Fold this sequence. Notes:
binds beta-D-glucopyranose, mainly beta, 3 helices, 9-stranded antiparallel beta sheet, Beta-galactosidase, Chain A, domain 5, 6-stranded antiparallel beta sheet
Amino acid sequence: MKNILPGVSWSALAALLVIGAAVGSKESQTPAAQAANKEIQTTKGNSQMDVKKESFGRLPDGTAIDIFTLTNTGGIEARLMTYGATLVSLKLPDRKGKVDDCVLGYDSLDGYVKNSPYFGSTVGRYGNRIAKGQFVLNRVTYHLAKNNGENHLHGGVKGFDKVVWSAEPMKASGGMGVKFTYFSKDGDEGYPGNLSCIVIYTLTNDNELKISYEATTDKATPVNLTNHSYFNFTGGRRDTLGHELMLHADRYTPVDKGLIPTGELAAVKGTPMDFTTPTAIGLRIAKVEGGYDHNYVLTSGGGALALAARVFEPESGRVMEISTTEPGIQFYSGNFLDGTIAGKSGRVYGKHFGFCLETQHFPDSPNKPKFPSTILKPGQKYRTQTVHKFSAK
Ligand code: BGC
């Protein structure tokens, strides 16, 4: 066949044809062409890999939701969607190389919209609880949405997990990523200030999933962003009580009945809260009323990236190490999963079927002057990073 554009290579021509097909109106395409063009965009992450962008359906109001697939040379695949800047699936090899999806969630958008306990989502403007949904800042009392009894939880009724983020695939050093952005208006859920947020997920060829958060504001406001993935390294075969957990934390923040910190930093030593050496999640869980749902005070103190947690699942051999710049981590053992949710492949998610390790500042910090501050001021940049490193042994 003759090259119709001299000086233009065949691969460039092919790319032009793909772009041409993608921008052609839907009406002018055959159903087969439409199906082929559903996957219209790939972005070179490096020479071997591409970020794939596909449609993940529409919200009830018609808004289109996209899903991006990241892959690496170690056989890991992560899928992320624009609704909630959510980690939808995370496929990880076990010690024999068998790959399973190791995060809870749904097969389609519908489940996430109708009933999701924050499966995989980005949580904000404030991860975890703010007591009585209020705080005082610069002598002004702010009233937040109360969506957890009398308290405010995970950003309110419509937190960052329930909004549509803009997204673009991006190149990243040693891998590929997706950059999500969201603009939260002054007054959203009661918070002061216009907040511009960026969340970047990167999958590297060193088998790391990195999540970087940035934010700026035009009025002082609390900010505490995290990711709410529920992990299950059996690949969803059974509950997570056999997973061995190590937390790099000598202290935790005890809570009252409404799960609001009392303000005390208590030692874990000699209690069922102690995970300073690897211990099965289920070993002492019965001694903790309601199960684990506590913020641990990381030994690192936050600031520089430091190891916070290690998880080992004995049957599959899968290991996850979490490093973070945050001073705290919420260990939530999936206590409120009660078998009413049928997730991926119709699997029923019972109690402790997944657990979360949410890197964060401490809950209710806006009302606890002794906790590290969560207030972001105009002119400052909020910047945190959490790295999940995966392996199998
Ligand atoms: C909280 C739990 C809450 C869960 C899901 C966790 O971060 O600590 O109390 O039930 O998120 O909503």
